[in-house]
Amino acid sequence: MIETLNVHAGYGDGPDILQSISMNAHAREIVTILGPNGCGKSTLLKTVAGFLKPRQGEVRIDGQHAEAVPIHEKVRHFGVGYVPQTDNVFRTMTVTENLLMGARALDRQTRAERFDALMVQYPTLANKRRRKASALSGGERQILSLARALMAGPRILLLDEPSAGLSPAMMHEVFDAIERIRDEADLCILMVEQNAYEALSISDRAYVLNLGSVALTAPARDLLNDPAMERLYLGGEPEV
Ligand SMILES: Nc1ncnc2c1ncn2[C@@H]1O[C@H](COP(=O)(O)OP(=O)(O)OP(=O)(O)O)[C@@H](O)[C@H]1O
Ligand SMILES: [Mg+2]
Description:
The chain is of the alpha/beta class. It contains 10 helices and 10 strands.
């Protein structure tokens, strides 16, 4: 479980971008963060991941104060995997090399087992395992970045716009993959998304941010069914 308690955070000596954010996400849950561009969604994820230190408040992972552990040990210590919004694969490396990079800390056998399991789970990657990441499509790269995070065997997965720039078909593939991960591996998934309808339809709960604060939190189903929410926060009618 991850939680933030009245977290304030910002960059350098700039203003607070996050203002007193309290939120949480549990195991076997997909929690989606929605909100307009620049409202602080990525900043919140970076703060939960430990790349940004809260100025006030606390990030807790499984009830433990998260700052006590250096960033590079977060995955091993707390099981937190983070897939950033951009630059999430090494383009000059092959699919296989990218995946193995995700599990440097593991012993050889666990690494081999995870790799084989992911090859079964993601045939697209298996077929292109010797290709350079730069030769994959955008959607295939998104799947690769997800799979690479899974190589480390995280219990908590932080995903920053996993469907960004994808065609509808590829977007559905990525969301299906995320849903399966939650159901098969009991993960706690915290995801930032612009594609609100599609994200909510696989999510359990959502937080809507505005100007660095939580404007609203609700079960995903309620948000999907509420016409006012649709107009205010979800940007109009869904594409069918
Ligand atoms: N590295 C940085 N240094 C300084 N300010 C930053 C940095 N990254 C983001 N910001 C500022 O923080 C605010 C929130 O940015 P953030 O990236 O969290 O927004 P977002 O909700 O993820 O937006 P988007 O939907 O466009 O990805 C913005 O005003 C942005 O200019
Ligand atoms: Mg962002």
